Amino acid sequence: MSSSAPRSGRAAADLSEPRALRTRERILAAIREAAVDSDLDRLTVSAVCRLAEVHRVTFYGHWSSLSDAVADAFAELVDSLAAVSGTAIAEAGSPERLARLYAAALVDQLAELREHRAVYRALFSENGPHGFESVLRRAMRERAQQAVDALCDAGIDVPGRGGEAAAYLAAGVTASFAHFVHGDGDGDDLDGTARTIAAQLPSWWPAAPKEPRALGSASSSALPPGITQDSRHGTASPKRTLSAAPDDEQPGDST
After folding, report:
1. pTM to 2 decimals?
2. Is 132 helix (H, G, I), strand (E, B) or coil?
3. Mean pLDDT of the chain
4. Which of 15, 97, 103, 234 is deepest in the core (most CB within 10 A)?
5. Residue ranges of region Disordered (predicted)?
6. Closest of 24, 26, 22 to residue 242, by C-alpha
7. How far apart are CA 107 and CA 189, in angstroms?
8. How far are the Cα atoms of 49, 188, 222, 251 from residue 44, in angstroms, in the given order?
9. Is 18 exposed, middle or buried (0-12, 13-18, 19+ CB in 10 A)?
């Protein structure tokens, strides 16, 4: 990935402003679209900006480097697939059914990793505090904390509810994802892979009941902008086209 950084800092723009948030979302969507169609090493800030219809100064108002932006784009996508809505949690009725919701979300994550395996192999090879694996692990830690809180509310006694449990879960699942994308198999048995990962979870994590799942039911409502839910297999895929920029976000906008 080729880039230069005229300013320092990650996500320096004020994301409390709706306009800045929309601009960021357009750039992330453009990165996902461009990355799945070309080699990451050939991806440039200029190409992303053309696709997102923003100027380079706008891009650098949000990220100090292209590598940071790419890590955010795909980490946020993978993390979003683990989302379980508050309504689904409330309607689960038992810790075991909660575990089933998270198991379904895990399969969706694996499907995304498999579909764009070449992209994720390259991303997991990026090292450092701002590399994809580190960014994903931090995002997954927040998601894991939500799961821990939901299980505690459902009656599970989770040691380390204050953060240790979530950190352990996030690190383990993220490492399992890295192993999965670097594996030699084609990953056809996503349910089997998900069960193998779940088998490594702590003893307090409830066993999910074996019942049919509705693909995408746990996470489809929480996908980030620029992502669509594929009704055939429940995976999220970058949109192939971007809508025209709103009037207040035409090229030249420096938000």
Report:
1. 0.78
2. helix
3. 81
4. 234
5. 203-255
6. 26
7. 10
8. 9, 33, 28, 17
9. exposed
Indicate the burial class of 31 (C-beta count within 10 angstroms; 0-12, 13-18, 19 or more).
Answer: buried
The span from the CA of 177 to the CA of 182, in Å, is: 9
CA angle, 27 then 222 then 10, to 5°: 40
DSSP, collapsed to helix, strand or coil, labels residue 217 as: coil
How is residue 165 written in tokens?
């449990």
Q: Which residues contact 103 (CB under 8 A, 6 or more apart)?
A: 194, 195, 198, 208, 213
User: In angstroms, rounded to a whole number, what is the distance separating the alpha carbons of residues 35 and 24?
Assistant: 16
pLDDT in tens, 212-255: 444 444 544 445 544 554 432 333 444 433 434 443 444 444 44
> What are the pLDDT digits (tens) for 91-144?
998 999 999 999 999 999 999 999 999 999 999 987 665 689 999 999 999 999
Strands 227-229 and 236-238: antiparallel
**Per-residue pLDDT reduced to its tens digit, 135-168:** 999 999 999 999 999 999 999 999 989 899 999 9
Both tokens of 246, joined, read 């709103």
C-alpha to C-alpha distance for 92 and 95, rounded to whole angstroms: 8
The structure tokens 């919701």 sit at: 101
Tokens 């689960």 locate to: 92
